[in-house]
Amino acid sequence: IIRTEKLGKVYDNGYRTCALAEVDLEIEPYTFSCIMGPSGHGKSTLLHLLGGLDRPSSGDVYINGANLAGMTSDQLADFRNRTVGFVFQFFNLIPVLSVLENVQIASMLAGMPDREQKERAVRLLESLGLAEKAVARPNQLSGGQRQRVAVARALINDPDILMMDEPTGNLDSTSESELLDLICSLHGKGKTILVVTHSETVAARSQRIIRIRDGRIVSAEI
Amino acid sequence: IIRTEKLGKVYDNGYRTCALAEVDLEIEPYTFSCIMGPSGHGKSTLLHLLGGLDRPSSGDVYINGANLAGMTSDQLADFRNRTVGFVFQFFNLIPVLSVLENVQIASMLAGMPDREQKERAVRLLESLGLAEKAVARPNQLSGGQRQRVAVARALINDPDILMMDEPTGNLDSTSESELLDLICSLHGKGKTILVVTHSETVAARSQRIIRIRDGRIVSAEI
Ligand SMILES: Nc1ncnc2c1ncn2[C@@H]1O[C@H](COP(=O)(O)OP(=O)(O)OP(=O)(O)O)[C@@H](O)[C@H]1O
Ligand SMILES: Nc1ncnc2c1ncn2[C@@H]1O[C@H](COP(=O)(O)OP(=O)(O)OP(=O)(O)O)[C@@H](O)[C@H]1O
Ligand SMILES: [Mg+2]
Ligand SMILES: [Mg+2]
């Protein structure tokens, strides 16, 4: 369902950083995989390329056989909003919107009817223990609470593919466990799940661990 | 060295949130303590009050016998810049400054001579594996790299007290281990260390675990 060919990413801000090189990856549908590796070795970079949030410097990303580079901007927007639910390492919440609006906005972009947006958003927040924070602004939340809002936003459009960049980094072991149960139940419903994580707890519940080192895949264990 | 009496914090943004209530805490000098507890239960709030970064709604914080509330703004600034090294949960790096400048600025505020500032900053970045990122901006770094810059900044003035809010949340187990070794060696040099963490690895190396639940201390095990 997700495939890359010789995927590469070089950043050039006056000095060159090769973040990814020659990544060949195949993710089967309905699988729950983890991406692990040392800090700074390319995990977030890889996830952003797979989610169509950034362009490769070389190589290609294919989703369901379609090359992301060949998509129209409408097709790409549709892919990013409806096919994939993306949780950012630092959440990317909108400061001026409430927690509820932050979650709802993803479904608004996907064209969901207003009333359904609100119902789904409220239910998701409840399932993540955030019901009483619905009217709060992101800067009024704790770190782990913001992280859970980011998860709610990624789930509201019921996407087929979930990409999560360190979704439990700010959570205590109980909250991590609860989120992991949620992820496993979504996997049980037929979603394809790709999680960048440093957590052995999360890795233990996945079906496959993809290890990255220096921008390359070094092993992909089952 | 750090003592609180009936410390409380209530946020009022149109709706009231009681984040901390009646916290009586005593931290002995030269100890390495962890603060643990569920997401949203008051850990960051407590650390900010102890570090003089926020004012209590009730109760007092005493550092070396001096009540923070009674300090002049000069004394408080001195306490925050030179007595305490603070690592924020989300780093609070300055986007327009380079990594090196972000670390240096803390020593500049403390009145360190320019040349010494730069030497110390470079050495700290090297010890944290960030030497090659000295001229990069924070938004060009990975999550774990930014976290380590925040640690370097907290250490540059060689403070007696280190307060760290989840310093390993974005680090892989090897990087976490290296940072923990650094923390333990600083402890060995006579520093007082207080770490909010969700990590059992970090907790295992501490001397005392202070547990928080619903804004109250529920136990303080050794
Ligand atoms: N916008 C950018 N400009 C320049 N370099 C960048 C940029 N974004 C990331 N990098 C660099 O690319 C490399 C890989 O970064 P990436 O964020 O993918 O790491 P990561 O594996 O997710 O790390 P972590 O576990 O710390 O989050 C790092 O060396 C980083 O400094
Ligand atoms: N500026 C604020 N305004 C209103 N409420 C706030 C504010 N900052 C924090 N809170 C609330 O205070 C409570 C405690 O927050 P705190 O950040 O101390 O939690 P925490 O234990 O550090 O959580 P985490 O482990 O998720 O980082 C939470 O319910 C949070 O929503
Ligand atoms: Mg990352
Ligand atoms: Mg916190």
Short description:
By secondary structure, chain A is an alpha/beta fold. The first copy, chain A, has helices at 43-50, 73-83, 99-109, 114-127, 143-155, 173-188, 200-205, and strands at 2-12, 16-27, 32-36, 58-63, 66-67, 84-87, 161-165, 192-196, 208-213, 216-221.
Structural class of chain A: alpha/beta
Q: Mind summarizing the main beta sheet of chain A?
A: 6 strands, mixed
Shape of chain A: globular
Rounded to the nearest angstrom, the radius of gyration of chain A is: 17 Å
Largest interface: pair, residues per side = A-B, 35 and 35 residues
Strand content of chain A: 25-35%
The ordered H/E elements of chain A are: EEEHEEHEHHHEHEHEE
Average pLDDT of chain A works out at 95
Oligomer: homodimer
Count of distinct strands of chain A: 10
In the sheet with the most strands of chain A, the strands line up as 6-7-8-3-9-10
Low-confidence stretches of chain A: none
| Distance, first to last CA of chain A | 17 Å
Which ions, cofactors or small ligands are bound in this entry? adenosine-5'-triphosphate, magnesium ion
- Please bin the fraction of helical residues of chain A: 25-40%
